[in-house]
Design a protein that fits this description.
The complex is a heterodimer of chains A (256) and B (207). Chain A is an alpha+beta fold. Chain A is 35% helix and 26% strand. Classes of the chains: A alpha+beta (256), B mainly alpha (207). Chains A and B meet through helix 1, helix 2, helix 3, helix 4 and helix 5 of A and helix 1, helix 2, helix 3, helix 4 and helix 5 of B.
């Protein structure tokens, strides 16, 4: 197998690599998959790619506390540089990496995740949004450019209705999903992060940090997408499944 | 390739920042093969980044950090080659692996993965770190490493292949190459072949 890829063009190698990590465009997948199915050599090459991808994605080494402490120990110099950068209008994201890492979730005075989750109690007041024609993993509904997922085709959860509200001046929209008599509501709130529920458990899935809280009979999962808060909650869906729905990325771009 | 990078526009997202630091740290570890050196590398990278503030779009911050990390790493290599080599002991390093206490076997596997990545030729390793560890798209990785997207894909393919084979070996060790082995550029990016020379699925499909 050492030279098994010798007959493949660089474009074909790239497609195999992309198939293995899930980034190959849908339109190309079928052709590559057929070729792989027909060739034991290609299957072996693809397996190797997948083994490596899985091994790397399994790496779970967070930055140690000692490193965070070392970085946090230089705030004054950072502040000076940041002030200078701001004077010239530069927004250096990496500066904020140090400064904002210390902030708790949500700004003081912001609405809370619990308030957002409570919007679901009001029920749907409009029909379910349709699917996005160009992106089957999305609904044709969004808040501040953040689309709602279309779980239906893959996971069996269908959008059953929607409602729009305003929460402390923020635009919000909730889509209600149903599956086998169970319901989950997905709310997106525009603007800065909401205040997390006290005692919310922090969990990570697929590279995203989620806050999970129980409030009465309701399980609430909240996280950020493109800076806007998403709240997925349900009275009768298990926390694990809610997390799975929250972390679902469709073809790779919904939940990042 | 589908976009897997950070979304464009908007200000810095506080929620992403700890995650950015985690990814940067894993990338540093994979690049240099040592958790302790990775800490130093991340700190030095951040110091350099902060010393030269510049306007960054949100979708360009990760590629920028990747480039800064790699440049800092390569500069450190050159500097280190001029002074006595420090041999790293293997003490509490696995303590930085989240699974080390609860699942020592998993921690060992992860350690082996980091070691295997660190043993890849530098350019293969950089491509793999940029895409698979840091999470850049192929395009972003190409920008960060100042090369072509096709080159990134080709290097990534070969890096993964070597990594898989290394991990599949009994002791997870021996890559038959040195970390500094030059990459065979001539085989990396091949010009489009004439149709009668092609034997891949594209050619087969066409015939």
């Amino acid at each position: 197998m050492e030279g098994a890829h010798g007959n493949l063009s660089s474009a074909e190698l790239a497609e195999l690599a992309a198939l293995a990590d899930g980034s190959l465009p849908r339109a190309k997948r079928a052709a590559v998959a057929v070729a792989v199915e027909r060739s034991a050599d290609l299957r072996e090459l693809l397996d190797e790619q997948r083994v490596a991808v899985a091994a790397v994605r399994a790496l779970d080494a967070p930055a140690p506390a000692s490193l965070r402490a070392r970085l946090e120990a230089t705030p004054r110099a950072t502040e000076r540089r940041r002030a200078r950068a701001l004077r010239v209008g530069a927004a250096l994201a990496a500066t904020a990496l140090l400064a904002l890492a210390l902030l708790p979730g949500g700004q003081p005075g912001a609405p809370t995740v619990l308030e957002a989750a409570a919007l679901a109690d009001r029920g749907a007041n409009a029909s379910a949004p349709r699917g996005d024609r160009r992106r089957p993993d999305r609904l044709d509904a969004r808040v501040a450019g953040v689309p709602f997922p279309a779980y239906g085709p893959q996971l069996g959860w269908r959008a059953a209705g929607t409602r729009s509200d305003e929460l402390s001046g923020r635009v919000t929209r909730t889509v209600f999903y149903e599956r086998r008599g169970r319901q989950a509501s997905y709310t997106i709130v525009s603007g800065d992060a909401l205040v997390w529920p006290p005692g919310a458990q922090r969990m990570r899935r697929a590279g995203v940090t989620f806050r999970v809280a129980e409030h009465g009979s309701r399980t609430i999962v909240s996280w950020l997408r493109e800076g806007h808060t998403c709240v997925l909650s349900s009275d009768d869906v298990a926390r694990r499944q809610l997390l799975m729905l929250a972390a679902w990325k469709g073809v790779g771009t919904v939940s990042s | 390739m589908a976009s897997r990078g950070p979304p464009a526009g908007g200000g810095p997202d506080p929620e992403r920042l700890p995650d950015l630091l985690d990814r940067l740290y894993r990338s540093a570890w994979a690049l240099c093969g040592s958790p302790h050196e990775a800490e130093d590398l991340v700190q030095e990278t951040m110091t350099r980044v902060l010393a030269r503030p510049r306007l960054l779009r949100r979708d360009s911050e990760l590629p920028y950090l990747m480039r800064a990390l790699r440049n800092t790493y390569l500069t450190g290599l050159r500097t280190a080659s001029r002074r006595p080599r420090v041999v790293e002991l293997p003490p509490e390093e696995s303590a930085t692996l989240r699974s080390s206490l609860a699942e020592p076997e998993a921690a060992l596997e992860q350690r082996a993965t980091f070691d295997a990545i660190a043993a890849l030729p530098e350019e293969f390793r950089a491509a793999l770190v940029a895409v698979d560890v840091l999470g850049l798209t192929y395009r972003e990785a190409a920008r960060a490493l100042r090369t072509r997207e096709a080159t990134i894909a080709s290097r990534l393919f070969r890096a993964r292949q070597r990594l898989a084979r290394s991990l599949g070996e009994p002791h997870g060790s021996g890559l038959p190459v040195s970390p500094t082995e030059p990459v065979e550029e001539s085989r990396e990016v091949t010009k489009p072949r004439r149709s009668h020379q092609r034997r891949g699925w594209r050619a087969r499909t066409e015939t």
